Amino acid sequence: MIQSKICEILGIRYPVFQGGMAWIADGKLAAAVSEGGGLGIIAAGNAPASYVREQIRIARSLTQKPIGVNIMLMSPYVEEIAALVMEEKVDVVTTGAGNPSKYVKDWQAADIKVIPVVASVAMAKLMTRLGVTALIAEGGESGGHVGELTTVVLVPQICDATDLPVIAAGGIADGRGVAAALMLGAEGVQLGTRFLSATECTIHPTYKEKILKATDLCTMVTGKRLGHPVRSLRTRFALNYSKAEYGGMPDEELEQLAVGALRLAVQEGDTEKGCFLAGQIAAMVKKEQPAAEIVKELMDGAEAVLKGASAWVR
Ligand code: TUI
Q1: Does pLDDT of 299 surpass 90?
Q2: Are the CB atoms for 53 and 88 separated by under 8 Å?
Q3: Does the global pTM surpass 0.90?
Q4: Which of 51, 113, 134, 151 has the fewest CB atoms nearer than 10 Å to its CB?
């Protein structure tokens, strides 16, 4: 069985995090992953604090195991949610899309383990100085808001820059990806797209179907012009957005085009106006299955790969 320090630190069986996908990673999905031995993470996204509180309570009603909340630092509700996670005593906070420095001390004082996503070596060093618990190094293969570097390039550099445990994210679909991440120096992995196919994931059936039918070149990045590149499925919406982006649509109009697009995909399955966030591994998601089975399959797969690889060493 593969167990690393991060399992001990967090009190989890397998070093597998389920990514905090906005509007998708709710209390039900997070609880299922935690029950399966990984770390389930509720996404705050752009949702109000009341939604996040409700989801935390749902998760707590379904599992006694540790759960996390992902705070999207660009959210208009970030201050309220930063306070809420302390009131609700969540076990772990992960952050994304920015610098969480100003909240770290308070969270630590509340006994919350803080695990920020870092997209650069400079941010990894800064977070290490603040004494966070671990770091997530997320490469640009991931879905949603993406950084510049790929996982295979980012992870070893982050590992070299810190003594903290590093969790690799972006482009990981199965045991091979988990094994590769461990070989790069990571102690654990975070997956988002793979969990879209979980039985407990309550996205619109159209969203699930699109993931299950995806092929290798079916994601694209839009939003670079406004400074917020986002990877999603190559749908009518994404292609129209891209055309507008490179066709000179004014910034305010372009921003308007994306408002509510995520919710429309997740809740309505709207392929005309919805933005279906997905990572490059969408094509490797083959079937719907319980979250716990996904976690187990990832770790059994990694173990088999690592055992096989060690046989090459003379
Ligand atoms: O955050 C994500 N993925 C996301 S957030 C999101 S919602 C959104 N909606 C519209 C525009 C943008 C986002 C959908 N998917 N992943 C974690 C992540 N964090 N990736 C990259 C980063 C990151 C970027 C900059 C972390 C730190 C950072 O620091 C910048 C600074 O302040 O120095």
Answers
A1: yes
A2: yes
A3: yes
A4: 51
